[in-house]
Design brief:
By secondary structure, this protein is an alpha+beta fold. The chain is 66% helix and 11% strand. It has a four-stranded antiparallel sheet with strand order 3-4-2-5. A two-stranded parallel sheet has the order 1-6. Strand 3 and strand 4 (83-91) form a beta hairpin. The relative contact order is 0.13.
Length: 323
């Protein structure tokens, strides 16, 4: 199925400066948000307790806030959770604060507020939260390094650097959106970022693979023309794949409920940004890094020549004509 006719070649690289400028604005804005507003770390990373409570009637949120203000959990944050009769209570605290059975304590504290059911109590100590932050960051760094090595081995170092820059572009903007909308950052967000990196690198490699294929067959040594042809040939595939994924993620975002909201929101933003970067940004970085079509052709021709020479020598050796 073709959305874009491949007979027409879109001159995308003529606007690469505009694309890179737009991306720079979003990346800089995201970094400023992350440095000033920061991230709203959930208990997975900050440590604390989360209690999910369901009432038989509409939850008395104002009464709950008044009760907690007068208790030792004055830092508790109470918010509606998916429906008016359900709330989530988030409490940050040290390990000593979390040593008691807080579920029983909450039943006593919330007794005056009506009939309710405590559906979930999750507790994470600050030390564990710190370790999760460190390991999460390590997972992101190691994944980027592994992708850099893989792409450099499969293609050429300029392709590898371009793909990693595109991934950093995607992850930064996605985290900027998370900061802007104060989405709670927990392990689900980390899983979404890692999923985004895998999705984005897959899209980028497909475009790069077509560029490499066209570099070897074309008589045109102008990189911009080769990229325009390659991106045009993959445009329908990239768009269809992204729309399919986006429909699924949008369904999770709007109908999946509060529990997976952070995961689906991050993926929703990430798929849009990742598709944009695969088409417009990654290839633009390749041009900025001065990738040479002619040099690449010569290297590939030399590899083919050496492979044929090795095959010929091996054949002569097996036939006994080489001593």
């Amino acid at each position: 199925m073709e959305i874009f006719k491949t007979e027409k070649i879109y001159n995308l690289m003529a606007k690469r400066v505009a694309f890179l400028g737009l991306s720079s604005i979003f990346v800089i804005a995201s970094i400023i948000l992350l440095l000033t507003k920061g991230l709203n770390f959930g208990i997975d990373f900050a440590g604390g307790t989360i209690i999910q409570v369901k009432y038989e009637q509409a939850a008395p949120i104002n009464q709950l806030r008044d009760i907690f203000k007068e208790s030792k959990y004055s830092n508790a944050v109470i918010s509606e959770f998916g429906s008016p009769d359900e709330v989530v209570i988030r409490i940050t605290g040290s390990s000593s604060d979390l040593s008691n059975d807080i579920g029983d304590e909450m039943k006593t504290t919330l007794a005056p507020t009506g009939k309710f059911e405590i559906r979930r109590v999750d507790m994470v100590g600050p030390k564990v939260g710190g370790e999760l932050r460190e390991k999460g960051l390590m997972a992101l760094v190691l994944s980027l390094v592994a992708m850099l090595i893989y792409v450099a081995f499969r293609f050429e170092w300029r392709f590898a650097v371009s793909s990693i820059l595109a991934l950093l572009h995607d992850a930064t903007i996605a985290m900027g959106a998370v900061s802007l909308f104060s989405v709670e950052v927990n392990l689900d967000i980390l899983a979404a970022i890692l999923t985004l990196l895998g999705y984005s690198i897959n899209d980028t490699i497909i475009v790069f693979d077509r560029i490499r294929e066209n570099v070897q067959t074309t008589k045109d040594n102008l990189l911009e023309n080769v990229i325009n042809v390659s991106v045009t040939r993959t445009l329908s595939r990239t768009t269809l794949t992204s729309l399919t994924v986006l429909f699924v993620v949008a369904t999770l975002l709007f109908f999946g409920g509060e529990i997976i909201y952070g995961f689906s929101f991050t993926l929703f933003v990430g798929v849009i940004v990742g598709t944009y970067s695969s088409i417009f940004v990654a290839s633009s970085f390749l041009v900025q890094l001065k990738f040479s079509v002619e040099d690449f052709k010569n290297k590939e021709a030399e590899k083919i020549k050496n492979a044929k020479e090795r095959a010929r020598n091996r054949a002569m050796y097996e036939q006994g004509t080489v001593w």
